[in-house]
Amino acid sequence: MNRITYLLLITLLVISACSSNKLSLSTEEKLKKADDYYARGKYARAAMLYDEISFERKSAATAYANLRVADSYFAINKFSDARAKYEQFISSFPDHDSVANAYFRIGECLYEESLPAQYDQTETINSIDAFRLFMEKYPGDERYSKALDYIRKAQYKLLEKTYQNGYIHYKMKDYSAALMYFDELIALGNTDKLDRQALYYSAKLHLHQKNLEKAQASFTSLQNRYPGSKETQRLAAKFK
Q1: 53 within 8 A of 62, measured Cβ to Cβ
Q2: Torsion sign over Cα 150, 95, 25, 19
Q3: What H or E segment, with its residue span, contains residue 179?
Q4: Where are the domains of the chain?
Q5: For the chain, what is the radius of gyration of the CA atoms?
Q6: pLDDT for 171-196, tens place per residue?
């Protein structure tokens, strides 16, 4: 037997031994190893073992492993994969004690998956729906207020999207469409950056369209709400 053949044989024996050891692990041993990986922050490795256990339908650890797979993906920011696993957990174990965690995490995953305000906001809208479902199902849960905070942040991102739409139409010189978006923000009566900028562009656009009454109304609101702002200062000379 030549040296190369001998080395190949040894390699095959080692691989075979490793595979045999892996197959010989009991569910309890796999679970202990997976928990150890998880505790040490080795979430990708933990996910692989938890996933194996989750397919062992006769095991008492199946539900726990299923949820842990999702948690592992969540920990390494694989939010789409995590969400799919949380949804699978809810479908498979709707009466499990930890199902509330899955509902909450689905909302978090969707929020984390959502794109910046200038892009499509489907995930943002879906995150609001997910958190509302969580709040409806678990009104006494300690994360209720946190879910509400997520909803507020998501709703503000939608307002940012409205502003971005208005600004894009402004840059495209589609002034009527731009005013529609800016007026939508102004009508909310908020006192924030988006309202200030919407009033500023509203006044500018009404001036451009020679609608002096509406331009004055927008500027007066801007001046009253944000007297020292740069937007007010920029327009002040035009309304003397």
Answers
A1: yes
A2: negative
A3: helix 175-186
A4: 173-240
A5: 28
A6: 999 999 999 999 999 999 999 999 99
